[in-house]
Amino acid sequence: MCTLFNRLFVNLRQGDDAMYTIEHKTIQTAARVLAGSFAGDPGTAGTLEGLPSEKKTKLLNRHAVLHIRYAAKQGLLHLLDDDPRAFMIGGESSAESLYAELKLKLKIVLISLPVLGFRDFFRLIQNTRKLAAANDLSWYKGLVPKRHYRLKIIAVDPSLRGTGAFRRLITPALEHADKHGLPVVLETHNPANVGLYEHFGFELVKTLGSPGLALEQFCMVRKAVDG
What we know:
By secondary structure, the chain is α+β, with helices and mostly antiparallel strands. About 50% of the residues lie in helices and about 15% in strands.
């Protein structure tokens, strides 16, 4: 596994055009895989409900690029064998930055409005509010120590599925957590993922939602290994 390429932004500042071209392609490829992976996700479907299909696709692609760039800059992007078609986004809690996350959210808003227009943008806001009970990214606060490992995303291009890519992506992260005695947290809106993560030692500790809401958030924790 190749850990995050911090050199990305150094090379951009230095004006290394050849390296920029390579890394630009890497980001675009990873973003394409990310957008494809979440196109059918229940959480994504609920958030984008009622929007025109062409706007959904464009918005999802734009958001994916922002998330990949953010993950790369924060040291959270891990490629499998330098191949952006399979990657994990995750890392220790110390790598997370409230300031950086706020900047990301602002960028998402600024990029969403021109793509959607005011009418569909407010529809997106309404959908987000409606699903708030099943979309809590801070659910684990108070359940695990301040220092923990957060697994955000594992995405594998269809061309690499069945090759063991998922296992090869998640195993180093779990080994790192075990080595340092850290619990691992993750959330998913896809019930099919619950059994998959249980296979790797995660436990379902909380399910978020509300009566009448079709969406549920499954909150999972893999306990720290006693050192």
